[in-house]
Design brief:
Shape: globular
Pfam families: NAD_binding_10 (PF13460)
Organism: Slackia equolifaciens
Radius of gyration: 16 Å
CATH topology: Rossmann fold
Number of strands: 10
GO molecular function: oxidoreductase activity, acting on the CH-NH group of donors, NAD or NADP as acceptor
InterPro entries: NAD(P)-bd_dom (IPR016040), NAD(P)-bd_dom_sf (IPR036291), Polyketide_Oxido-like (IPR051606)
Number of helices: 5
Protein name: NADH-flavin reductase
Number of domains: 1
Distance between the termini: 27 Å
Largest sheet: 8 strands, mixed
Length: about 210
């Protein structure tokens, strides 16, 4: 498979590249500067400058974009909209590295993780921005998208266990009552979904087994 990982130099993006390369995929890193990943190919462009021609040859595109400052948080929506517009009507799948704040905590889907009293105040703007981007993505019936939320405790330096539980729209806990996953295990789940294509136009979630 030919895949592109947008914002590949980031922590999540670089591990997704590594996982995909080690499974024999033909991986292209989309980066603004020097390619710091192990991807054999690179497109050096800002995400917002990407065109239909840039992404036309891929089977799947991974969006690993992240923004954290008040000025850039709206780019979660605008960057995703740009990628959707590029891939509109194409047979190319779009897989999005999402957040956990928008996962539901009740069967009625009226309460989200970010609504909880114990949710850190400093992370609410990010969770809201990612949730808004997901809400807008749900309206795109012209794109073969999959939005993958990590567990609530998303550990950049966590170990690669090789085992995870696949969840859906609701916050899923493992048998120890934890909602945790490492970036490395998340990368496994992402590449598994690239290979299977089982959840088109769905949000799924992953937690360490």
């Amino acid at each position: 498979m030919k895949i592109a990982v947008v914002c590949a130099n980031g922590k999540a993006g670089s591990l997704i590249v590594k996982e995909a390369v080690e499974r024999g995929m033909d991986v292209t890193a989309v980066v603004r500067g020097e390619n710091k990943t192990i991807a054999p190919h690179a497109i050096q462009k800002d995400l917002f400058d990407l065109t239909v021609a840039d992404l036309a040859k891929f089977d799947a595109v991974v969006d690993a974009f992240g923004a954290w400052t008040p000025e850039t948080l709206p780019q979660h929506s605008t960057s995703l909209a740009h990628l959707c517009d590029i891939l509109s009507g194409a047979d190319i799948r779009l897989l999005v590295v999402g957040g956990a704040g928008s996962l539901y905590v009740n069967p009625e889907h009226t309460a989200q993780v970010m609504d909880g009293a114990d949710f850190p105040e400093e992370f609410k703007p990010l969770a809201s921005a990612q949730g808004k981007a997901l809400d807008e993505l749900r309206k795109r019936t012209d794109v073969k998208w999959t939005f993958i939320s990590p567990a609530a405790d998303f550990q950049a330096e966590g170990e690669r266990t090789g085992a995870y539980i696949l969840g859906g729209e609701e916050l899923t806990l493992n048998e120890r009552g934890e909602s945790v996953i490492s970036y490395a295990d998340y990368a496994i789940a992402m590449v598994d979904e690239i290979e299977s294509g089982d959840h088109i136009q769905q949000r799924i979630s992953v937690v360490r087994k």
